[in-house]
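Posted in: Protein Modeling Q&A

I'm a second-year student putting together a small comparison for a lab meeting, and my supervisor asked me to include a predicted structure for Bacterial Ig-like domain-containing protein. I've never done this before, so apologies if this is the wrong subforum. The sequence is pasted below exactly as I got it from our records. If anyone can share the structure token output, I'd also love a short note on what stands out.
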Amino acid sequence: MEYNIDGASEWLPAAANDGKFDGKEEDFSFETTSLSEGSHKVTVRVKSQADVSTSVESSVTVITIPPSVSLSAPAQNPTNNTTPRFTGHASSASGTVTRTEITLDNGATWLPAVYSGGSFGLTTQTLEDGNYQVSARAFDNAGNVGRSGTVTLVVDTIPPVIGGGVQALGPQILTPNENNSISMVAGTETTIAMSMKGGVTGAQIQTGDGNFDLVPQPGTDLWVGKVKFESEGAKEVVVSAVDGANNRAERLFNTLLVEKKGAVSDQATGAKITDAEISVYYFDTIVQQWVLWEGASFGQENPQISGDDGAFSFMVPAGKYYVEIKAPGHRTTQSEILTLTGTSTLNFDLSMRSNPLLSLPFSPPDTVVVTVGGNKQISEKVTKPAVGSDAPTAGLPLENHKNKKLLLTFLSPWSPLSQDQALILSGIDSDEILAVSLQETEARTQVFMQRGSYTFPIVADPEGKSGTDYNVTILPQHYLIDSSGKIQEIITGVLSKNEILNILAKVR
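Accepted answer (user: helix_wrangler)
Welcome! Here is the predicted structure, written out as tokens:
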């Protein structure tokens, strides 16, 4: 018995399965040499003892190339869809695709995918949040297996966490006054910086005067943007954030009191003076004299020229000031000396007397009494844990302070005022203080403590859960907790050493 492949001139022997050809019927077999991809003709012939030959032909198809497989992940990745659908295409150049499968765990387990007409698909069962290593494979009728590349799918149903922030006018950090409100003047542009966690891809500040985009700061969790209010009144500042899975978070940052600009007018006629020069002077305690305040350092012009409506405004930090106004045909006018204990708006109305018909040389300026803005009270809409309520545990080690009073201070290394507060906290030797490093890792918190040589107790809250539970908005923020675990007072801003000691002395 012999066989021939593809009509070759050479016939090769086949072997009887029982070792010899000696019966009327025999089973036989043979192994070919390596055959190329494709279809081949196999001819077998047998010769009887009577020298009669019989032959038979058959064909065999050799398939060594595995199926081609491609996989498409969901269009949105990361996704908040917990039952995503995967689709793909599979084909075999020489054979037939018999089944397709998909793995979500890099090949540990495989799930059948429905295959039809070159395409396959699988809708998963409910997935938990996490990363999934997804690929597909296809089998052909020759047993070859083809596999697609791996796609990492991120399932994320948790919205971003919006942490604490600061609002600034130039280098001037704006903090609430004793009435727990922040005042500013219409038309003034301020900067808001917010810390955010959770894969944030976009963030906005929403106000009654429009929406303002926040921009990520490379290498940090900070998002920063400029905000300007053109109209007066109480303004809610809402921060919104969205992550790559389209999960959204929204939080009321603060309510601001936007005040009108001041105006310069003629005392006799009431007409607005449009070309008055308004200058702010500051008492420099180093040189012990009055100097023109450097408004440019705070994003403001000084002097200012009144517009068609006679308007002007300034926002100045704590210190001693006076305002001087000069206008053609009018007497130079000065405000009284203003001693300001915090950031204040200079937006009062001023009237100027016309020059007398006969001007005296070296005539003194008119002095007027003014009222400084920036100390009005508005309704507080940022909901915080109520005074008298139990302090949220929020994953913090409050059990270590059980039956003890505690000043719980939220800060963050990136915040300038938090750095000021950290220096003050280090000067207090007390086990009644605990700081929380909001949305910072343990490692970065320790670097912050070491660089500043700070010694106060601090815990890191990398995800910012405690900030959410306590609704921390402006940093630093303090919660005075009594020995029964109830909140007795909430304070925003930097506290001096004496203020901290006095606050702790209030409760048992």
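A couple of things worth pointing out for your meeting: Residues 2-62 form one domain. The chain has five domains: 2-62, 68-155, 161-231+242-253, 262-368, 398-506.
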